[in-house]
Design a protein that fits this description.
The complex is a heterodimer. Chain A is α/β, with parallel strands linked by helices. Chain A contains 15 helices and eight strands. Chain B contains no helices and nine strands. Chain B has a five-stranded antiparallel beta sheet with strand order 1-2-7-5-6, with no helix packed on it. In chain B, strands 4-3-8-9 form a four-stranded antiparallel beta sheet, with no helix packed on it. Classes of the chains: A alpha/beta, B mainly beta.
């Protein structure tokens, strides 16, 4: 089965340069094009000021499409945030939430995006209630599958049931490659060391992570109470034993933080991609630290890309750099170089 | 090894009204990766030199308009988002403001993005000078 894997960059990756005002929206698009990527993923709320007003304005859209033409880029995915607790005293009603989802589908279509990313906190009813509109504007809704969630799980089954029951072609999954971490990223470990974590505690945590992989992660269940589901997941994956061991070894705040952060990462079998390929139309190629030799610290890029090839994936792998958050308190972040290396690693894996 | 700048180093100052100092001001950037409506700010806590400022004395200014922390709760207008990478100004009403010289600030931005099962509570600390 032939594959058609294209490379995209989520502008989320350039957030540190944007924050420092070294890059504006056009600057991010220019950097994207320089890497050889042909797709661009946008968090409109991050880089479009006065969101959502400009998107409704024709002059802004002319500029947007002008930039895309200038840099030879194609919109790949629009990352939506369903702000259903926009007020602190209530949750938006189902109807309000569906309207907000439809607004995002509409905005995405205005900017030429074929897909929006929605988050795990979006209630099933809201997704189902928006499918008709998604079809009308021709924009698919992709649910991000981000650690601690995973494909081939009780959680994912809930969504597959909905897909089969409704027969929709407008909903599917956007896997985040953070679910394919062979170890805890080195930038996280280095940060723990800078903050005073001990080698003994670091080893306890790293060994616990290796043990989770060896035994296979216990999967998270479907529960709208995400806090509860997450805590059950952590406990089922040996959190208490690990925390007790860190404490017994005299662990302080930096050690505890490192131990807790280990649950931000998980390992799924790349086979999960192949099993679910019919429902995957976009992918977040999450990464944490690219070395000069184009290897990633934690994400199994070659193995995962191989699975996409084997599955005959037709879509984007969209670089999403998330290492900056472990550096920025102490040092400068060079997202531009990190993304350049990541795109090269993806290129080699796709073409290799 | 210089970390990211959170506070505007030029932003710390006492403020005057009708010839007397009624408080002090600083500017900082939100420690979150996108812009947001002021309504998802659940609180801003300010502590200078170890002293907590009362919530009712804190004001937030975004794009030229100033709000109390109760008013921000209903603020969803796109023209008053706290944009990613932009400074917002915090004013603390306090008779006499701060003394000239060095001070230490510890402020916490409590932000509640709807999708997160917990609130963000970044602690923002720095030393600064009142001239």
């Amino acid at each position: 089965m032939g594959f058609d894997i294209k490379r995209s960059i989520s502008l989320y990756s350039y957030q540190d340069e944007y924050y420092d005002k070294k890059l504006d929206l056009e600057g991010c698009l220019r950097e994207t094009a320089k890497t050889g990527a042909t797709g661009v993923e946008l968090l409109a709320e991050q880089m479009i000021r006065r969101f959502p007003l400009p998107i409704e304005d024709e002059a802004f859209r002319e500029q947007w499409f002008g930039w895309l033409k200038k840099y030879n880029l194609e919109p790949s995915c629009y990352d939506a945030f369903l702000e259903n607790h926009i007020y602190d005293n209530r949750t938006l009603t189902l109807k309000e939430q569906v309207k907000m989802m439809e607004r995002d589908l509409h905005l995405a279509s205005l900017l030429g995006f074929p897909v929006i990313r929605t988050l795990v906190s979006t209630p099933m009813d809201v997704i189902e209630g928006s499918l008709e509109y998604a079809e009308k504007v021709g924009v698919k809704i992709g649910l991000e599958v981000h650690a601690p969630f995973s494909l081939n799980s009780g959680w994912a089954d809930g969504y597959l049931e909905m897909i089969h029951r409704t027969g929709t072609k407008y909903f599917g999954f956007i896997p985040d490659m953070g679910i394919f971490c062979k170890n805890i990223p080195d930038v996280v470990r280095d940060k723990a060391r800078r903050h005073g974590a001990s080698e003994e505690c670091i080893k306890i945590v790293d060994d616990a992570y290796a043990k989770r992989i060896e035994k296979g992660f216990v999967k998270i269940k479907y529960d709208l109470d995400l806090g509860k589901a997450n805590m059950e997941y952590r406990m089922a994956n040996g959190m208490k034993e690990m925390m007790d061991a860190v404490q017994a070894a005299g662990g302080g705040p930096a050690d505890m933080e490192y131990a807790g952060s280990s649950f931000t990462y998980s390992w799924s079998e790349p086979q999960d991609i192949i099993d679910n390929i019919d429902y995957i139309f976009h992918t977040h190629a999450k990464f944490y630290n690219m070395h000069e030799d184009y290897t990633e610290t934690a994400v199994a890029i070659p193995e995962v890309v191989e699975a996409f090839k084997k599955a005959g994936y037709k879509g984007y792998l969209s670089s999403e750099y998330e290492g900056g958050e472990h550096l920025r308190a102490d040092m400068e972040v060079d997202s531009i170089e990190q993304v350049r290396r990541h795109q090269e690693a993806l290129r080699r894996a796709i073409e290799g | 090894m210089a970390g990211r700048q959170i506070y505007n180093p030029e932003g710390f100052k006492n403020i005057e009204k009708d010839g007397s100092i009624i408080g002090y001001q600083f500017e900082f950037k939100a420690q979150y990766y996108r812009g947001f409506t002021l309504s998802i700010i659940r609180d801003i806590k300010v502590n200078v030199d170890g002293v907590d400022e009362p919530r009712e004395n804190i004001r937030l200014t975004v794009k030229g308009e100033t709000f109390t922390l109760d008013e921000t709760r209903t603020m969803i207008d796109p023209d008053y988002r706290w944009e990613f990478g932009d400074y917002a100004t915090v004013t603390v009403l306090r008779d006499g403001g701060l003394s000239k010289g060095s001070h230490h600030i510890k402020a916490v931005q409590i932000i509640a993005p709807s999708y997160m099962p917990f609130q963000l509570e970044p602690v923002c600390e720095t030393d600064f000078e009142i001239k």
